[in-house]
Amino acid sequence: MADNDPQVLELETGPDPVYSIIFLHGLGADCRDFETLPNMLDLPAGIPIRFVLPDAPMRPITINNGMVMRGWYDIGFDIDRGLCPEGLEDSARMMRTLLGREEQRGVPAEHILLGGFSQGGAVSLYLGLRYEKTLGGIIGLSTYMPATQLFAVESHRANQHTPIFLAHGLHDPVLALQLAESSRDLLYEQGYAVNWHTYPMPHSLCQEEVADLSAWLGRILNESPSA
User: Fold this and answer.
1) Residues belonging to the active site
2) Which domains can be identified in the chain, with CATH numbers?
3) Under a CB-based contact definition with an 8 Å cutoff, are residues 168 and 178 in contact?
């Protein structure tokens, strides 16, 4: 990959993958934060999947007093869902690179799922709903939808009916449940197919969430006519 392309960790559940899942980590983490994800999920047997786990760039983060760390965009002390935070569009372009790369490797867009945790989920919602090709699914864990002021004019009809999995902790002290609920409600109002879940957890994952995500993924993978 070119020098300005994201560095990625790739994990394959079998030879010649027919699906790809691009999954983005949260603020301050790195690509290895979800290295165990393929093993955590109960995936359908016989459907080889490539997990693409990219590293966010290093950038100063306002809420952490300007400390430089891996982040998909800058975030301040107050989150304004309506605005596009600094760095978000740059990260979306990086993900476009990875989406195009998977297609070049023989995985069609409708077999690529884009998802992430926290900031990674926000990038996935931002790009996935604006992407001009139909994706296999969008996953947002403990996250929210940013840049909502421009959503009506920037969203693309290609992913109007793409399955969306959203999950959030009832006791999340980092991203308030209300942020996630507002994003869910906006998507409902616009007619998107949202599979919504909450769990009695903080800003993290839990076993029940992984089980629900596995079931949702299983339906998508097994229902595909060319899987």
Assistant:
1) 118, 172, 203
2) 8-223 (3.40.50.1820)
3) no
Tokens representing 208 are 């029940």
Asked whether the beta carbons of 162 and 188 are under 8 A apart, the reply is no
Do the Cβ atoms of 55 and 6 come closer than 8 Å? yes
Contact yes or no for 170/201 (Cβ under 8 A) = yes
Residue 54 backbone dihedrals phi, psi, to 5 degrees: -85, 155
Indicate yes or no: pTM above 0.90.
yes
Q: Are 52 and 112 in contact (CB under 8 A)?
A: no
Dump strand ranges (E) for the chain. Answer: 8-12, 19-24, 49-54, 58-61, 67-70, 112-117, 137-141, 164-169, 194-199
Strands 58-61 and 194-199: unpaired
Beta strands 8-12 and 49-54, pairing class: antiparallel
Q: In the 8-state DSSP scheme, what is residue 7?
A: P
DSSP state of 44: P
Both tokens of 146, joined, read 């940013």
Q: Residue 60 pairs with which residues in a beta bridge?
A: 68
Q: For residue 8, report the phi and psi dihedrals to the nearest 5 degrees.
A: -135, 155
Question: Contact at 8 Å (CB) between 143 and 175?
Answer: yes
pLDDT in tens, 50-86: 999 999 999 999 999 999 999 999 998 777 777 788 9
